[in-house]
Design brief:
Blueprint (H helix, E strand, L loop, with lengths): L1 H17 L3 H12 L4 H7 L6 H40 L18 H15 L3 E2 L5 E3 H4 L24 E3 L4 H11 L4 E10 L11 E11 L4 H16 L5 E8 L2 E10 L16 E10 L1 H6 L8 E8 H9 L12 H4 L3
Parallel strand pairs: 1-4
Antiparallel strand pairs: 2-3, 4-5, 5-9, 6-7, 7-8, 8-9
Helix pairs in contact: 1-4, 2-4, 5-10
């Protein structure tokens, strides 16, 4: 039996040396220490031995068992350390390599202008109002004093979804919705947002563009309030050296209506190619809210007055930055967008 244990030790040592992974190690352990191992076969022979032989053989069997467990534990640690070392080598980071540059995004130029305009009017005590882009014909035209068949509708070739719904051609419907919700109370809002018209895509027109409209309704509102507000706005946008002037115009929802011009910020009124030698640049349309619009929204025109104005956000940005093609805003060309 002693000779058998010596042979088992040699076999176990050789088997352990050939183990390459933990699964093989577990199989080796079962082979030499498990219930069906050679060690168990030797232990079953113990009852047939004398008392003195059992002492010696039992000692030898325990020594073999301890030797085998120590050998297996040492091999298990080697395999674990090897696994950890290989994992560390695989996941090793060379801190001397240059880092990856991540592009930092920025707000689109139109979003920057939108935010700036909102900040200006919030500072003047206005509230920001929003509404749906798919609008009722009732709010987009009729309640703005533009009934069906009105020639002013021809100025805005529209995207109709059906007979009653269309993509809004202006943010004016937000004004109507706000007036109806106010139920006769004073209103002081600006309405920024996207609008849609069947304009041919060229350097100065787009089927989609952005507008910001303003509305103030209260008692004792005059054209002087409108002019003071727009004068302040233009100076914020284009500089303190500029002035504004009103030129008579027509809009169905305002009476009187005006086109608002600002001193040319390139020549400061002396005349140049930008202003076509006039010294002035047209920027937006405005006027006093038409009595029909007020009465249709539940306001007494004899008690309440109001002014309204509307401007294209793209136009403001094009004038400020000398951009001559509106399509650049929507072309997603990084060479253009990264300049601002």
């Amino acid at each position: 039996m002693e000779k058998q244990l010596i042979v088992l030790k040699e076999e176990l040592k050789k088997a352990i040396d050939n183990v390459e992974n933990i699964n093989q190690l577990n199989e080796t352990k079962a082979k030499y220490l498990g219930k069906k191992s050679s060690l168990q076969d030797l232990m079953k022979m113990m009852p047939r031995l004398s008392v003195e032989e059992r002492k010696n053989v039992g000692r030898s069997l325990n020594e073999f068992k301890n030797y085998a467990e120590e050998l297996i534990a040492r091999k298990a640690k080697e395999l674990h350390d090897l696994k950890v070392r290989l994992r560390l080598e695989k996941d090793k980071i060379d801190v001397t390599l240059p880092g990856k540059r991540f592009a930092v995004g920025r707000k689109h130029l139109l979003d920057q202008a939108w935010q700036e305009l909102e900040d200006i009017f919030i500072g003047l005590g206005y509230q920001i109002a929003e509404g749906p882009e798919i609008e009722l014909d009732l709010y987009n035209f009729e309640m703005l004093n533009t009934p069906k068949g009105h020639p002013a509708r021809d100025m805005q070739d529209s995207f109709y979804i059906d007979g009653n719904n269309l993509l809004r051609t202006q943010t004016s419907p937000v004004q109507i919705r706000t007036l109806l919700a106010a139920k006769g109370d004073p209103v002081k809002i600006v309405c920024p947002g996207k609008v849609y018209r069947r304009d041919n895509d060229d350097a100065t027109h787009s089927h989609q563009f952005m507008q910001l409209e303003g509305l103030v309704v209260d008692t004792d509102i005059t054209m002087a309030d409108l002019k003071g507000t727009l004068r302040f706005l233009m100076k914020k946008l284009f500089g303190d050296r500029l002035e504004i002037r009103f030129r008579p115009s027509f809009f169905p929802f305002t009476e009187p209506s005006v086109e608002v011009e600002v001193t040319c910020f390139k020549c400061y009124g002396n005349g140049c190619g930008l202003c076509k030698d006039s010294g002035w640049i047209e920027v937006l349309g405005a006027g006093m809210v038409h009595p029909n619009v007020l009465s249709g929204a539940g306001y007494d025109p004899k008690k309440y007055q109001g002014f309204a104005f509307g401007m294209g956000i793209e136009r403001v940005v094009m004038l400020r930055h000398g951009i001559d093609d509106i399509r650049l805003f929507y072309g997603n060309d990084p060479r253009f967008l990264e300049q601002f």
